[in-house]
Amino acid sequence: MGYSSIQQDAAAAAAHAQDKLKERGEKLARISQESAELQSESENFANLAQQIAKNMENKRWWKP
After folding, report:
1. What is the pLDDT of residues 2-59, one digit of tens each?
2. Which pLDDT score is estimated for 59?
3. How far is CA 45 from CA 30, 40, 41, 42, in A?
4. If you count DSSP H runs as helices and E runs as strands, how many of each does the chain have, helices first?
5. How far is CA 38 from CA 5, 44, 50, in A?
6. Whole-model pTM?
7. Distance between CA atoms of 15 and 29, rounded to whole angstroms?
């Protein structure tokens, strides 16, 4: 195995590692965005649940 072959192998390994690092960064960005969306949706759900509970309490639908 010659010096040139070792350089090519090292360059290929570095390129592969760089590709994997880029993929990891993209996955982390996507997960971060999805987490933010889930947090927002859960806050909206909690607010809606509070509004419904308050509305139902004010109506007192269970009492004539």
Report:
1. 678 888 999 999 999 999 999 999 999 999 999 999 999 999 999 999 999 888 887 7
2. 78
3. 22, 9, 6, 5
4. 1, 0
5. 49, 10, 18
6. 0.65
7. 21
CA distances from 18 to 6, 33, 42 (A): 18, 23, 36
- Give, in degrees to the nearest 5, the angle at Cα 19 between 15 and 21: 115
> Which tokens go with 58?
């004010």
Tell the residue number behind the tokens 């949706």, with chain if given.
41
One-letter identity of residue 60: R
Structure tokens, 6? 């070792």
